[in-house]
């Protein structure tokens, strides 16, 4: 019997692609240029549109959702103005290697090139920060190119793809296409690569693994743990990839981030063989590209062939999916001779990660309370700012998928990303940590969380300043404060105005009481922590910084 081909609109074809990709949530701010697509989503019960208060917030939600779910985040926006607003999320997805597909309504085909209302050349605008940009003007090619967009976002090094469609294209009728499942290649290492790695490890005295986002995206955390245990390999987490390896494991020796303790740095410097696994060896991970030296043997394993040798010339470069690589590395036979060194470096890490039992700062007390009271599978997201230094230094992350943070350092990220993470993990506690500067940048999305009944917990460290910039200001121009002081805002009261719960705390006991109430709440909750502005970072006070410059 001959199959009857159905005719559907372009908007309906895009929704069919969403279904094929198992997209459950689509984020955005409504715009008249893509109303037919919104209407097609209205007819599809398996997909929910999350209407945000700002496109930047929507893009952070999609990025957080993608990190949590390991699926593509999807964002919708209108023309140049909506596209411009969400660029911060596209840049974050690029630097964080997060799969995201952005759909933008463009001006009518008849007006293209005339600088029409809210028109911009989308391809030129997004090309520097997107993995791929395409403007689809031929309706018949929509299924082909939208599927390609999802495939491009997910394959190799994941990243953001931008798809632009003139507003008149959405309503055009096309013949329904047969949707094929997107194939994501997972290259395996060559046998020669595995032999070479085995030979280097046999000669190693002080090997070290630096594990990054590629381990997480391939779902290889368990394999990494088994490999490290089998050969007593010390493991470090790359910048803001904390949950790549459990912190209570005897093989874990620290996090390479901002303000890394010297004891952790010494471990990396002493290593004679460094295995960079699923990391692009970014500026922060490598401490301004100064961490590794030519005397060390570098083995770089990554799914992004362009990244191999981009920062450091590796002795062994392996183009492979981390899961495929680790499954083969588990089979090599190496007799470790570095157990004593590994145990020593673990001990040094434990000394840096231990919270003081007495005379704690409020930041330290908050970390202790979170570590004690949060469920083990709770997900923590964080914004950019010096407050995160205490999280990076002291919070004991467990098994995978418990941490989401921006390696791009984007302010305003934490709370919207928590919304996305909570949608991915509705049965898990999700907590965001922000400073007052960053939280204010996307605070309007608290109303989005309330409107959609998304019960996240947002902790705001309020020192009434842009703390990170103030620290650098005091280092370079002590006492000459300009632009970094902020006004006094009651975030607890603001939360209540946005249909959420709000608490303001100044002591460890008050924080713990508020946290326990928040864990039982059925709506978004903000815990505003009033901190001492003098405590500008984990390692210094403003008073210390000024005194050093005077001496």
TrEMBL record:
The keyword Transferase applies. Residues 195-329 form the Thiamine pyrophosphate enzyme central domain. Keywords: Thiamine pyrophosphate, Transferase. InterPro entries: DHS-like_NAD/FAD-binding_dom (IPR029035), THDP-binding (IPR029061), Thiamin_PyroP_enz_cen_dom (IPR012000), Thiamin_PyroP_enz_TPP-bd_dom (IPR012001), TPP-bd_CS (IPR000399), TPP_enz (IPR045229), TPP_enzyme_TPP-bd (IPR011766). Its EC number is 2.2.1.6. Residues 9-122 form the Thiamine pyrophosphate enzyme N-terminal TPP-binding domain. One of its GO terms (biological process) is L-valine biosynthetic process. It holds the Pfam family TPP_enzyme_C. GO terms for cellular component: acetolactate synthase complex. The keyword Membrane does not apply. It is an enzyme of class 2 (transferase). Residues 383-529 form the Thiamine pyrophosphate enzyme TPP-binding domain. GO terms for molecular function: acetolactate synthase activity; flavin adenine dinucleotide binding; magnesium ion binding; thiamine pyrophosphate binding. Belongs to the TPP enzyme family. PANTHER family: ACETOLACTATE SYNTHASE LARGE SUBUNIT (PTHR18968:SF120), THIAMINE PYROPHOSPHATE ENZYMES (PTHR18968). This is Acetolactate synthaselarge subunit. It comes from Geobacillus kaustophilus (strain HTA426).
